[in-house]
Amino acid sequence: MSRVYNFSAGPAVLPEEVLKEAADEMMDYRGCGMSVMEMSHRSKVFDDIIKEAEADLRDLMQIPDNYKVLFLQGGASQQFAAIPMNLMKNRKAGYIVTGQWAKKAFAEAKIYGEAVELASSADKTFSYIPDCSDLDIPEDLDYVYICENNTIYGTKYKTLPNTKGHTLVADVSSCFLSEPVDVSKYGVIYGGVQKNIGPAGVVIVIIREDLIRDDVLPGTPTMLKYKTQADADSLYNTPPCYGIYICGKVFKWLKKMGGLSVMKERNEEKAKILYDFLDQSKLFKGTVRKEDRSLMNVPFVTGDADLDAKFVAEAKAAGFENLKGHRTVGGMRASIYNAMPKEGVEALVAFMKKFEEENA
Ligand SMILES: Cc1ncc(COP(=O)(O)O)c(C=O)c1O
C-alpha cells in the first residue's frame, strides 16, 4: 500500500486510523454479519451509530441543548436554498460576499426573497475579509449569512460579524471542527462533511430550535423543511448511513486527539510552517491578507502560470497530490485539514524549497 500526501480541498484526506477501522468492519460490523452499507437505517445497530455520532459531535462542539443536529443530504449547495426557504419570514436577508460559495448562496437566496449584499471583498479578488464590525444592517433582515472559511480564496473570519442582533447563519464546510466555536453565537451552522469530517454525501446542520418552524416559504419541499428532519431525528427518509458512520468515527478520532482546542493548536502549527515559508520565499507567495489567512486552505502562486503548472506536475510526481489551485483562480492551493499530518506539510515545504532552488 502506498499513500500520497493529499492536499485536496474536498473530498479530502481522512485519518488513516478511521479508514483502517472502516476497512476492518467492512464485511462484518461488530458481529452483525453485514456491512454498515447493507443494514436498515431503522435497525437498532444503525440507531446506535447515528445517536452516538450526534452525542460525540455535541460533546466536541459543546452544542447547547436548544440546538438540533441534523444529518442531511444534498450537500452544502442545497442549504443555499433550504436556508432562505426556512428562515426568510420577512423575505429579506443580508449576505456578506467573500468568495464563490457565498456568492452562490447569495444568488440562490435572491430566488426566494430580497437578498441584500452587506459587504463584499470582490474588489480585491476576495483576498481579504471585510471589516464587519459596524455594517449598515437593515432592521427587518431575517438573518445575516457568511461563509466562514473561504475554501477557494483561503480566507477566514477571525471575528464573527457584528450582526446587530440578527441571526447569524454560517457555512463552515471547510473549517468544520478545525477549532472550537461558540455555537450560541449562531442561529445555524452548517457544512458539507467532505472536507474535514467524512465522505461526500452528508451535510450537517446545527440549528437553534426556535428557527425550526412550520411556517416556511410556500412551496418548500417536505424534505427541505428543517422541521421534517428535526421531528424525525434525521430519519425522515433513508439518511446517508455509511457517511454518517464514518463521520462518527472521525468524531471519536477527534476526541481521542484531545478535542477541538488541541486540533486548533495542531492546525496553527501546521499552517505556520507553510505561511512562514511563503513569507520568506523569493519564488512563492501567498495571495491572502495576512490577518485573514485560513488555517485550512492555503493558496499561493509563483506569478508565472507556466511555472505554477510545472510545480504542480513535479509535486504530483513526488507524491504531493491535488495542489492545483481552483479553476477560477489558478496557481496552487494546499488544503491542510485536520487529518493532514504535520509531516505532510513539512515534506511539502521541503519540496517547495528544492523547487525554488532549481528554478531560481
Ligand atoms: C465553503 C463551501 N461551501 C459550499 C460548498 C459546496 O459544497 P457541496 O459540494 O457539498 O454542495 C463548498 C465546496 O467545496 C465549500 O467549500
UniProtKB/TrEMBL annotation:
Catalytic activity: O-phospho-L-serine + 2-oxoglutarate = 3-phosphooxypyruvate + L-glutamate; 4-(phosphooxy)-L-threonine + 2-oxoglutarate = (R)-3-hydroxy-2-oxo-4-phosphooxybutanoate + L-glutamate
Name under which the protein is recorded: Phosphoserine aminotransferase
Family, as annotated: Belongs to the class-V pyridoxal-phosphate-dependent aminotransferase family. SerC subfamily.
Localization terms from the record: Cytoplasm
Lineage: Bacteria, Bacillati, Bacillota, Clostridia, Lachnospirales
Subunit relationships: Homodimer.
Native source species: Roseburia lenta
UniProt keyword terms in alphabetical order: Amino-acid biosynthesis, Aminotransferase, Cytoplasm, Pyridoxal phosphate, Serine biosynthesis, Transferase
A single GO molecular function term of this UniProt record: O-phospho-L-serine:2-oxoglutarate aminotransferase activity
Gene coding for it: serC
Residues that coordinate or bind pyridoxal 5'-phosphate: 76-77, 101, 151, 171, 194, 237-238
